[in-house]
Amino acid sequence: MRVPTREQCYEILAQYDVPPHIVAHSERVAQVACFLAEALKKVGEPLDLALIEASALLHDLTKHWSLKTGENHALSAARELRSLGYPEVAEVVAQHIFLIPGPPGAPIRAEEVVYYADKRVKHTEIVPLKERFKDLRLRYGRDIASLLRLRRLEDLTRLLERRLFKKLPFGPEKVQELSRVETKRTF
């Protein structure tokens, strides 16, 4: 498996002219994802920390383009990452908007950790799921269909949250404590 290093991730972000506010969001998502992945690894989940960090840092690689084109930025970022030779990272990134959940009882996957971490970060602030989905409805709930899709995603994310934290010795509120930690290239 080929996974870019942290520094290579920052080079890719620069190469794609990702705006600083999106980089800052991605750094916070990576912080949450790495925190959860490390804790899950300690309880026996077979997670690749390098894959999770790189995927979290690169998950919004093409978001600034998609705001103009209307394209699904998870899929366009995955396409770009495949073209750069990172198919495993592309697979994780492709699912950060619409997750294909793993079956009950299956090991936790990198896709689930990055997806969940992204749903806990509003801009650069770590927030509870309720607040994040309220913001998503305000920004992307343009019609009944999009509001229903967001409701299904919120339900799926709550199920995922229960699945993740069932394995951990702490609850989702512990993630909030990361807000006090600076993220700029420090995780």
Largest sheet: 2 strands, antiparallel
Basic shape? globular
Strand order of the largest sheet: 1-2
How helix-rich are the residues, as a percent range?
55-70%
How many individual β-strands?
Answer: 2
Taken as a percent bin, the fraction of beta residues is under 5%
Which parts are unreliable, with pLDDT below 50 for 5 consecutive residues or more? none
Using only CA atoms, what is the Rg?
A: 15 Å
Order of helices and strands: HHHHHHHEEHHH
Task: Compute the separation of the termini in Å.
Answer: 22 Å
Classified by CATH, the class is Mainly Alpha
Mean pLDDT across all amino acids? 94
Can you tell me the CATH topology?
Hypothetical protein af1432
Looking at this protein, list some descriptive labels.
10 helices, mainly alpha, 63% helix, 187 residues, two-stranded antiparallel sheet, single chain, Hypothetical protein af1432
Structural features, described:
With 187 residues, this protein is mainly α. Helix content is 63%, strand content 2%. It has ten helices and two strands; from the N terminus they run αααααααββααα. A two-stranded antiparallel sheet has the order 1-2. β1 (121-122) and β2 form a beta hairpin. α4 (63-69) crosses α5 (73-83). The protein starts with 5 loop residues before the first helix and ends in an 11-residue tail after the last helix.
